[in-house]
Amino acid sequence: SATQMDKIFSDIFSGIGHKMFCSQFVTFTYQFAATQIGLNPNQVLPINDAKSSPSVLANKLQNNSYFKEVGYLMPNER
Fold this sequence. Notes:
single chain, mainly alpha, 4 helices
């Protein structure tokens, strides 16, 4: 629910009981935004944020109609 997502979001930013890695944070952020606009977070990004490795997240985003892939940040080759 939106209330549950608000509490988790608040706990994350206060540092209470949540250790996160980057893809977990990205997954949660998309799911949080979905609840704020009235969508079911699992409808937008149906994965468990605590178990979302970078490769799983990338795969889910590529095959999701809610997202449009723009490109990749590549190291500057000299």
